[in-house]
Specification:
alpha+beta, 5-stranded mixed β-sheet
């Protein structure tokens, strides 16, 4: 696992013909999180086929959030439950650090999925968000059907990467990971959400994705 986190820190520096330095983040196409570095977007389209699947859940304000809401936006995802007293408070505090840097930025979203949706209804998620004094309009706490949340977590976000696809929705999902997803719903980073240093790395990597988007628009 430590080697995997080292992969996350890697930045590939490419010197272009105009002597500009263009940073790049890896793509992750499978549950083992082997980093794949590709500059040419045409190659990306052919080689990186894994994307976040379609979904439909409800946020703390009982508003539907689905795959269309993340299309064209960078988002960070994690998986929590409101009664958690071990890793979840740390993850929420560290996600606040990320949120502070991109609060209400229309290009950035944060999705915190409940892994106990049978308890965490929209009202409880609203109270959780209020209790944590989170006022950002682009941070959504999501609930829905358990099997759909667990399937999305394991098969799209690969949050239990050591286990791959061996667990089903009957096994409780509990993970400390933050997952960074780009504007095209492709995985670009995995981080230990209990560590403040990792949260700061997420901020740096989001900025790289934003910068890379600007490079492509030049």
């Amino acid at each position: 696992m430590q080697l995997r986190y080292l992969y996350i820190k890697i930045l590939l520096i490419i010197i272009s013909c105009n002597n500009k330095v263009e940073p790049m983040l890896p793509y992750y196409n499978s549950a083992n999180f082997e980093p794949i570095f590709i500059k040419d977007q045409n190659i990306v389209e052919n080689k990186i086929d894994h994307k976040i699947s379609d979904f439909k859940f409800f946020n703390q304000d009982n508003e539907e959030i689905n795959e269309n809401d993340i299309s064209g936006k960078i988002h960070v995802a994690n998986f929590i439950f409101t009664s958690c007293i071990n890793i979840c408070p740390s993850m929420t505090e560290n996600m606040k650090i990320i949120n502070k840097n991109f609060r209400n930025n229309p290009k950035i979203m944060i999705l915190s999925y409940s892994v106990m949706p049978w308890i965490d209804d929209t009202n409880k998620l609203k109270k959780y968000k209020d209790f944590n004094k989170i006022k950002s309009s682009n941070w959504h706490f999501l609930t829905g059907k358990k099997d759909e949340i667990y399937s999305l977590a394991r098969n799209s976000y690969f949050v239990e990467e050591e286990l791959g696809f061996n667990r089903d929705s009957s096994d409780f999902l509990h993970t400390e990971h933050f997952i960074l997803v780009d504007q095209n719903k492709r995985l670009r980073g995995i981080y230990n959400g209990t560590l403040k240093l990792e949260a700061k790395q997420v901020i740096d990597d989001i900025n790289l994705l934003l910068e890379y988007e600007n490079w492509n628009n030049i």
